[in-house]
Amino acid sequence: MTTLRWGILGTGNIARQFAGAFGTARRGVLAVVGSRESSSAQSFAQTHRIPTHFGSYEQVLRAKDVDAVYISLPNSMHHEWTIRALEAGKHVLCEKPIASNAAEAQDMFDVARRTGRVLMEAFMYRSHPLTHAIVGAVRGGAVGQVRLIRTSFCYRTNRIAGNIRFDPALAGGVLMDVGCYCIDFSRLIAGAEPGRVVGVGHMHASGVDEIAAAVLEFPGGNTATFSCGMSVQADNTAQICGTEGFIEIPVPWKPPVHNATWTLAHSTPPKMDLAAKAVAPPARQTFTVSADRELYALEADDFAHAVLDGTPIRVSEQDTLGNMRVLDELRKQIASTVR
Ligand SMILES: NC(=O)c1ccc[n+]([C@@H]2O[C@H](COP(=O)([O-])OP(=O)(O)OC[C@H]3O[C@@H](n4cnc5c(N)ncnc54)[C@H](OP(=O)(O)O)[C@@H]3O)[C@@H](O)[C@H]2O)c1
Predict the structure, then answer these.
(1) Which of 22, 132, 208, 223 could form a disulfide with 172 if both were Cys (CB 3.0 to 4.6 A apart)?
(2) What is the pLDDT of residue 37?
(3) Looking at the domain 129-290, which fold is it?
(4) CB-based contact 314:126 (threshold 8 Å)
(5) Which of 9, 11, 13 to mutate to test the pocket of ligand 1 (most atoms within 8 A of CB)?
(6) Angle of the 180-190 helix axis to the 317-336 helix axis, nearest 10
(7) Is the distance from the beta carbon of residue 322 to the nearest atom of ligand 1 less than 6 Å?
């Protein structure tokens, strides 16, 4: 096998983006799509030139010409449909967050192991060369010893009714939706699991967390802070601050295919500390990184690489479980702040 034949479960927002980007993938073809509604499946298949469509998810799992399934369903459905897909002999790329909680995620990886199939959580920014460049720079000592990681991921939506993000029964909430990126990035850069996490937030009337801010304390004196929200705007950048300088990433979560940038800077002391002839800190250096495929195609090809060539998956089981444990703890703390 040299390419993967993909089946897609669900025809919503991210499924459209995934399928829309798929044309640039090198190691896969879209073979089948399944939806709760036959008409949605049909129009999705037409738009994305997918040869087969079904009005159910089960039929995708039964299809003989499907090797891997992409699960783009609401968070609460990831556990059930991932396990059903694995049991049907399919490899699974499952949208983030991989499950409703860490226990479900553990279950899913246990089934993947038993069935000998690959399971990966779809954190697409991990597949962009920008992320690889940042990790390489940090590990190479570009900012000295990392001490502080600061991130935000916010947006404002007015669509509450019918929005999976505002439905507690579908495991919605801002931490699950976008806070998970900040946690994932912080843990990736720290290269460790946090020993302590502390979060506060605001609950929406629908019963999900709507705004959250948290601190992650890593071993070795490294601290991460992040904020996320579904009714607020912010810069949505990432900063990695070290003893010798800091890195700024203007678009860390969904980097553009071409000319994604990051900047390496060295602090300017407060003016009063500057002696008359003080040497100015080195100028900021901005680096540009371009990908050769669309973001979701990079992700699909990373996954195909693991399935077809047996390479380690980009987001490992331990990595995903670590992220889910932090999400579990923060969600518990934030919900408990509301009486
Ligand atoms: N990686 C990324 O860039 C990214 C971006 C956005 C979202 N996501 C993740 O992708 C998943 C889906 O998000 P989305 O934005 O695509 O959501 P969405 O637009 O609401 O789509 C979800 C799809 O799930 C199916 N579905 C099955 N049961 C449903 C129910 N009870 N309520 C609503 N939909 C149901 C529907 O497809 P059918 O009607 O066709 O069956 C629906 O279109 C989430 O896990 C989210 O965290 C990832």
Answers:
(1) 208
(2) 98
(3) Dihydrodipicolinate Reductase; domain 2 (3.30.360)
(4) yes
(5) 13
(6) 130
(7) no
